[in-house]
Amino acid sequence: MLYAALAAVGLAAAVAVPVAVHRAGSEGVPLWTAVASPGPLSAAHAYLGAQCESCHVPTRGVEAAPCLTCHVTAAADLVTKPSTAFHTTISECGGCHVEHLGRGRPPVNMDHAALVSAGHAGAAQAGGEGLTHSVARLRALLGGSGTDLIGSTLAPRPLPTGEANRLDCAGCHANRDPHRTLFGRDCQSCHGTTAWTVGGFRHPSPRSQECAQCHQAPPSHYMMHFEMMDRAITGQGQARVEQCFLCHQTDAWNNIRGVGWYKHH
Asked: Which residue range or ranges hold the Class III cytochrome C domain (predicted)?
């Protein structure tokens, strides 16, 4: 009888608490939010306090519409930038923007798997649609939320073999190719989606004379500054711009051969 009574009380509470919260808001049941909260909000969202309904939709969780209620201006800016235009077809903010992890800045965990699941070949695809169409897609995403304008993981999910080939990395990561078109657009042949650094990369030997294959000299080297200042400082009066190895060392551009660390700007 005791167990039956406890089960009945538990069942009644399981029904009554959601109904009361749904009708009166998060503060309708005292101390309920303190029990249900998975952790403190970030400093940017701390003003929301215990008003869970500001972000969470009953029975559905966090959706894009409540987020855009506050972030509508930022969302409109996103669709105008090639590097962030992919937001037009991402329907869940929580896939990358994670909360309840503390009082610091809201963490952003870029989830490339979310881009693949959304059907992206890269930001260039979304960016090529034009601002008008992108805003229209955001309006469609919001549906009947009344807003005027336009997956959840704590760490990026590793992409299955071959999935990275569906992403146009250069569509988001570069307006100018840092490799000067030498390596094409096949970024995933060297770079991964969890870190941009190349694992196991070793710079060519300090004795290499092919620096200009990968490195481009600054604009000043193609002006009188190179002849009047740079060559004089290094003592290489006959050096050509593409002969980087005569003046520079491989640990840092400012480590001048025979001079040491030198930075005059």
From this structure: 44-100
Domain positions in the chain: 23-199, 211-261
Cβ(95)–Cβ(37) below 8 Å: no
Question: Any idea how long the chain is?
Answer: 265
Residue 246's pLDDT band (boundaries 50, 70, 90)? very high
Q: How far apart are CA 226 and CA 103, in angstroms?
A: 50
- Beta partners for residue 261, in sequence order: 255
d(CA 247, CA 215): 14
Alpha-carbon distance of 204 to 2, in angstroms, equals 77
pTM: 0.49
Residue 118 has φ and ψ, to the nearest 5°, of -80, 0
User: Quick check: 142 and 182 in contact, CB under 8 A?
Assistant: no
